[in-house]
Amino acid sequence: MCESEDDLTPADRELETALRSVAPTGATIDPVAAAFSAGQVAARTDVRRWRAAAMILLVVSAASWLRPALQDRGDGGPREASIEMKSTTLVVADRSVTPPFAPQTILMLQQAVNDRGLSALPASELPTVRATRAADAL
Amino acid sequence: MHGSERERLARAVVDRAAVLVLYARQWVGDVASAEDVVQQALTALLGENRSPNDPIAWMYRAVRNAAIDQARSDARRRRRERIVAAERGAWFDAGHDVAIDARTAEVALQRLSPEHREIVVLRVWGELGFTQIASLVGLSVSTVYGRYTAALAELRAALEKPCVNQKTT
Q: Which of A23, A126, B76, B89: CA 20 to 30 A from B110?
């Protein structure tokens, strides 16, 4: 497939050269004005960027200043809400897993006395009391 | 982009300004609008943060896009103001040491289809390679080559007998 410059015929090349000898009409392009306009556009972009940064900073600082003020003013509200939450909490006691009463509880002792009399009372585990005389202390 | 880089690019564009204006005139009619298009493209090029890989091809692309946009608004304006094509001005300088008469070349070029004419301008006066042209116009290299050789054949036929259809102004 012919698709490179080398594939042009000599006649085509001759025609190219002949056409190229005709110069396009001169144009007035001002590179200084173009550079100035480009600089203006770039500066405008920079200014917009700085303005946006300043705006964001302002919004953030305003928000950080307003937030504690709002929190102070509305202190009661959240607390009440938490109380409401607590009041609605449902606590369910699972009796199947409740440990049995210890033998020293009043209930258990009463039941034991009812069933088996005073002998059912457990032996007291009081420490032995040694008799002391006043003379020993002096 | 550094200042020296911008200066180099600006100089390269100014050196090719006449061809870029000729290229823009494939869409926009008058010289002033074509120059505005090139100036606008140069401003855009100098405003780029990084220099494009192929600045000249970039310029042709920018000129093409701007010229097409301009042509759309021109078409609307022309419908309103009924501007005639005769006011457009010559495409080529009437030089002395030339192989082809400038007016003859312009007439022959204007007879080509816009697609063929664009490729001829890019190739002959823009001195772009077929790969660059293909990338610019969004066609395959073989299609561009085929259109170019067909356009050259048309031009040759027109230039061999220029007096038959050339208008006398």
A: B76
